[in-house]
Structure formats: C-alpha cells, structure tokens
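Hi R.,

Here's the chain you asked about this morning:
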Amino acid sequence: MGSTKKDESQMKKSLHLIRIPYEEPYHLNLLIRVSNDDHSAELEFYTSNESLLKFAEDLENFPMDNQQEVIWELGSENPEDKFGFFFRIHATLNTSNDVSINIRLCDNSDIIHPICSNLILSCNVEELNNLGRLLNHFSVLGEMKLQWQ
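And the predicted structure, written out as tokens:
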C-alpha cells in the first residue's frame, strides 16, 4: 500500500484494477491503483465476483430512483476485527449533478500503524456509468486489467 504526491506531468484522475490469479471464480485477488490531481494510492484486496458485479451494476444504473449514493465496502478499519485491509468506494451525486467518488484504502497488516489513504475523484454521471460497464465486463474474468480515466 502506498500513497505518493505526484509531479505536475502525471496529474489526472484514474482508477486501475489488476487481477492477480487466485481462487477464481469464487475469490478475486485485486490490486487497485487510484490517482487524482494530487495523490495516488494502491491496495491489494480480496473480494467475491458477486460483490464486484453488484457494485458494477449499481454504478451502471446510477442514480437509481431516490438513491443518490453507491457504496462498496470491504474489510474493516477496526483492529479488533483483524481484517488485513479496509476498502471503500463511496460515490455521491451532488447538487450540480456531478459525482464525487471518495475512495478510502487501508492496509492493516501492521495493526499498530495501519496505512490509510483517502482520495476524492470527480466525474459526471455518464463517466460513472461507464466505470460500471467496465467493471461489469471485468467481472467476466476475461481481462487481467481495467483502466478508467
């Protein structure tokens, strides 16, 4: 897990997912790399294909009825829960109909000193829907990498 300040020549929002072969299709081992205009962070985490697909479908159909937020959360920040990681993507629609995506990544491998990063990405609804389509295609497990910018 890392978080870095980026130089001006590399600044742009992006989200990358890399599949690391594991116990597929039941368990997915993924590496997420995220960057915004100022920082980048990455985290290796585990999830189920069903969880990934549900999140993808929620993003594809966002916003739904009166629901103006989508959350995908895995693991725990609480040391007593003994999770190796905490991962949360929280997308919300603001009053100007733009989307704010709050991403929190925590590596809890050192219980005393966990490493956490918060990044916020901004996009419009169509870009978020496109991320959902990319994740849906990625969940078929035909591709090893996903890139969204």
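The chain has a mean pLDDT of 90.

Let me know if you need anything else.
M.
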